[in-house]
Design brief:
The protein has 204 residues and is an alpha/beta fold. The chain contains 6 helices and 12 strands.
C-alpha cells in the first residue's frame, strides 16, 4: 500500500489513478497511522508554496512527514511536493519549508521568448545515477508545469536536470527520499516507468 498525502493540493487524483493503472494499491489520506504504516508515501501537489505549508501545518502533517523519513519509508515528492522538501521558496518569502533536504526554490528567470510558467515537455540529463531512472534513456522527455525551480545545495543528490532559462534540478535522491519537479503521472510511458521504479523500491 502506498499512501498519497492529502493536504488539499491539486493533482492528487491523477497520481492515484496512475498507481492503480500500474496495479499498485494506493490510498489518498491524511491519517497519520495510514501514512506511517504505508510501504511508501507520495507527496504530490500543484499550487503555492506558502499555502501548501500552511495546510500541512493545519492538518498536522509536518511531523508525520518527518517521521516517515526517519522511519526510512520510501518517500516521493512530485512537483510542489519536491519544492516543499527544501528550505524555502522565493514564491513565499519568510515561509519555512519542510527542510528535509538542503536547497532553495527560485523563480525561473525571465528571458525573451521564454514563457513562465514553464508548461510542456523537456528532456532530462542524468548527472548522477538515480534509482527512479533505471531503464530510462538520457534525453527522455517528461512533462513540467512550474514557475519556480530547485537549486539543491548538494549537487550529489541531483539525479536529473533540464534546461529552461536555468539549469533546473529536476529530480533528487537522498537515502529513502526521492522527488521530481516534473509530473511522472503525466509523462506517458517514461513517467509510468519512473513510478514503476518507485514501486519497485517500495516493495524492496
Amino acid at each position: 500500500m502506498i499512501s498519497i498525502i492529502d493536504y488539499d493540493a491539486g493533482n492528487i487524483k491523477s497520481v492515484e489513478k496512475a498507481l492503480h493503472h500500474l496495479g499498485q494499491e494506493a490510498v489518498i489520506t491524511r491519517d497519520p497511522d495510514k501514512i506511517l504504516n504505508a510501504k511508501g508515501v507520495i507527496l504530490p501537489g500543484v499550487g503555492a508554496f506558502g499555502d501548501a505549508m500552511e495546510k500541512l501545518h493545519t492538518y498536522g502533517l509536518v511531523d508525520v512527514i518527518h517521521q516517515c523519513v526517519a522511519k526510512q519509508i520510501p518517500f516521493l515528492g512530485i512537483c510542489l511536493g519536491l519544492q516543499l522538501l527544501f528550505e524555502s521558496s522565493e514564491e513565499s518569502p519568510g515561509v519555512e519549508g519542510l527542510h528535509i533536504l538542503d536547497g532553495k526554490i527560485q523563480r525561473i528567470p525571465s528571458q525573451a521568448g521564454l514563457k513562465i510558467p514553464h508548461i510542456g515537455w523537456n528532456s532530462l540529463s542524468f548527472p548522477n545515477e538515480g534509482r527512479l531512472f533505471r531503464g530510462i534513456l538520457e534525453n527522455s522527455y517528461v512533462y513540467f508545469v512550474h514557475s519556480y525551480y530547485l537549486q539543491a545545495a548538494d549537487p550529489a543528490i541531483v539525479t536529473a536536470t533540464t534546461e529552461y532559462g536555468a539549469c533546473i534540478h529536476a529530480s533528487v535522491e537522498k537515502g529513502n527520499v526521492f522527488a521530481c519537479q516534473f509530473h511522472p503521472e503525466k509523462s506517458s510511458d517514461v513517467g509510468m516507468r519512473i513510478l514503476q521504479n518507485f514501486i519497485g523500491i517500495v516493495e524492496g
